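quick one, two chains, predict together pls
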Amino acid sequence: MSTREQGTSPRKLSYLLAIREAMQEEMRRDKNVILLGEDVARHGGGFGVSKELWEEFGDAQVRNTPISENCLAGMALGAAMTGCRPILEFMFMDFSALAIDQICNEAAKVSYMYGGQTNAPIVFRCPQGGLSYKSAGAHHSQSLEAWYAHIPGLKVVFPATPYDAKGLLKAAIRDPNPVVYIEHKALYSTEGLVPEEEYLIPIGKADIKRSGNQATIIAAGYMLQYALEAAQNLAIEGIEVEVIDPRTLNPMDEDCIFTSIRKTHRVVLVQEACRSGGVAAEWGMRINEACFDWLDAPITRVAGADVPIPYAQSLENKVWPNPTQIVDVVKNACYFK
Amino acid sequence: MSKIETDLSPEIQLEMLKTMLKIRYFEMTAGSLYKRGLLKGGVHACIGQEAIPVGISAHLRTDDYITSTHRGHGHHIAKGADVKRLMAELMGKETGYCKGRGGSMHVAAFEVGSLGAFPIVAAGVPCAVGAAFSMMHQGKDQVAVAYFGDGALGQGTIYEAFNLASVLKLPVVFVCENNCFAVSTRTEATVALKDIPSFAASFGFTGVRENGQDVLNVYKTARAAITRARENQGPTLLYFDTYRFEGHYFGEPEIYRTREEVQKSRDELDPIDIFSAYLLDAGMMNKQSRDEIEISARAEIEEAIEFAKQSPDPNPEEFAKYVYA
C-alpha cells in the first residue's frame, strides 16, 4: 500500500462507502450538486450507496425520481446547463440503454455543437458487471463501458479500489464535462485504505498497481483483482508482471501504458465485457500503432464471451474471464512452457 | 382577423408584427440561399407558424429558457436572438452562435435563454424540464418553455417528461406546434391524442388546444400558463393548431399534399396577414406604416446575410475545439 492511500490518517473504507463519502463531501461543498435517481433517497439507491444522504441533505439535494431513464438524463442535462451539477444514478448500468439518446446524442455533444456556449457537468453513476454479483442474468450483469468510451464528449472512468473510487468521483463531480462513472457491483464490499483528508484523482491518469518487467497486464474494474491474483501466481513461477489499472477509459492514459510496454515488451489485456468491440480492442490497436517495434509477442486479450449473460451459475462461470486464463495467456505471451 | 382583446400596447403589437416578418424573411431568405447552394444540410422553415413563438415570447423574459427543435429559427428570433449570428450559423461561419459547429438544426443562443435546438424531436423536452428543475432548486423565478411538434408525440420521452414535470410541479410550459405533418405523414395518422384538456388533466395539469395562427390568441392562451409556471404552480400543455406552408425541409418533394391545399392555407391561415388585418382595422397602423415595418424587417435580414457572407469560416485546425469544456 502506497503512502498516498494512507494520507496522514488512514482508515479502512469499503468501495461503497468511499463513493458515498465522495458524494457527501461534494454535496456539502456545493449545494448545486444534486443526486437524482430511482430510489436514491431513504432507500439509498439500488445498492445502498446513497443511504443516509437524504437524511442529511433532504429533497433539495437527494431526489427520488420516476423510472424514466431517458427523461432523467435529459433533465440532468437541462439542470447542468443552468447551474446545477447533477449526479444521476442508474440503478443498473444496463438501464442506461434507455438513456443513450440523452447521454450520447445530447449531453456528450452540447459543448461542441453549441460552439462552447454551454457545457454539461453531469455524473452518470452506472453500477455494472457480474462475477461475485451472481445470477442476475441478461439485464442486470452487463459491462457496457465500450458504448460510452466510443462517444466523443464523454469521459468514462472505472475505479477498482475504494481510494480511486472516492478520488475519481470527486473529480468527476467537479469536471465541466459529462462523466460516465462506472461502479463494479462486486467491488462494493471490498475494502481499502482511504485518507481522511481531501484528495482528488485526475481523470485520464492510469495507475500502476504492481510493478514488474516481464509483461504488462492492463485491467480495469473487477478485472484488476483477477490481474493482481494472476500476477501473484505468476511471480511464484518466476514471471514478474506489471499491472496497470487504466482507471479512466476515455481519455486513455497512453503515456503510462506505452511506457510500461516499452519496458516489458509484452502485454495482455483483460476485460470483463464481451470480447467484440470492447475497450481492450481499442487499447490493443493504440498499442500496436505506437509500440509495435517494442513488442516481443503478439498483443493478446482475455475477455468475456460473446453471449448474453446467462442465469445458471454453471453457464455464468463459463462466460466470465478468470485468473487462471490470465495466467495462461501471460505465460503464452512470455513463451513460458 | 383577430377578435381578441389584449392589454398589449400598440407599440408592442407592432413590434410583434415586425418579429413575425423578420422570421418570415429569415426563412424565405434561407430558402433562396439553400436553392443557390449557399446553405447546406437540412434547413426546416417555420413559415406559416410564426405566431406561436411570437405570442409565447411576449410573456417571456430574456433570462427565461426555451428548448427548440429542428424547425427552430422562429423560436430563436422571437426570443430575441441576433439574426446576424443566427444566419452566420446557418452558413457555417465562425461568427455564428455555435461557431459553425451546430448549423440550422443545432443552433442555440444562450445569451437570450435558448438552450438549443434538438432535432431528435422530443429530446429537448426533458432538457426544458431540467432547466425548470434547476430554477426551482436554485430558488429562481425563471420559467422554461419546451417547443415541439406533433411528430414528437410519437416519442415516449415526452410522456416521461409530462409525468416528471407534474410529479415535481416544475415551472415548465409544453408548447406543441401541430403543423399537420410529421415529415410527410399527417398528424391524424400518427397521433391518437385529440382531447388535450382531458389528456393533460390525467397527468395532473392544465392543457388547452387553440388556434395557433392568431398571435393575439396565442398570447392570450399562454398568459395563464406562463403565470402558473412563474408562480411555481406546475406545468401546462399548450397545443396549437398551425400549418406548415413549406415542405418538411427546403427541397422536399411534398408528394403528400396538393398545391391547392397549400395555397388555400396560405390564403386563409397566414398569421402575418391575420395580424396585419387586425392592426390595420384597429387603426394601430396604416398601409404606409405597414410597409415601413416590412422594409425595416427585410433590412435586418439583408444585413444579416451580408454579415454572414463576410464572416470567416471556422479554422479547420480547430475542428476538435469544444469537444470538451
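The mean pLDDT of chain B is 96.
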